[in-house]
Amino acid sequence: MVLENNLGEDPVRRLVFRLAVPSMLAQFVSVLYSIVDRMFIGHIEGIGGMALAGVGVAGPIVNLIGSAAFLVGVGGAPLFSIRMGERRQEKAQQILNNAFLMLLVLAVILTGVSLLLRRPLLYWFGASDTIFSYADEYMTVYVLGTVFALLATGMNQFIICQGFAKVAMKSVFLGAVCNILLDPVFIFVFGLGVRGAAAATVLSQFLACAYVLRFLFGRKAPVRIRFGEYAPSVIGNIARVGM
Length: 243
Hints:
Elements: H1 12-30, H2 32-41, H3 48-85, H4 89-124, H5 132-143, H6 146-160, H7 165-189, H8 193-217, H9 232-242
């Protein structure tokens, strides 16, 4: 197995550079998801301004939903790294398995709650009757892809902490580039407007998610996702560190 970075033997300064730069670039590119959506939505003829305001209201809710990915990813990755450093691969495996399960469960819960409460949530975050329909269209479609967003972001942390920062960066780049290409097609060519922007984002997140899971289920990952060994204590530790 060829490691992109050998975390146990490579010089620390070199490792910091090799891991930090791709991670920083990925974080920068991930911002493009929301920026690109808003750029194209603002140019929808006749309704651009109101549609942009509606998407802006939905934005904080979308960010809150996405924070669940960091709860698990940032909570589980340090614990995973510690176990790998201790060469207790079976314990690292258990953490990865439980983190994957947590993201799936959180995705289901957040999708259901968000769809049921989207009307009061949107009004609570500042939607007016004029822009509510645009906020509702964007949020409804986006929320249906919650599982892809959480898995792509949350599980990406476990690629980085195994030393494959470039692989993690490529998954983010894949999603961002696809979003840039698909936005004008869904919004203008298909005439879907705000729903098209959300659909383009969901499809892009699906592709990024597929890339991440393909790696973590494949042979290149030193520790791969497996099913089983679920433990409330491990889930609790991940949530505690993530909080």
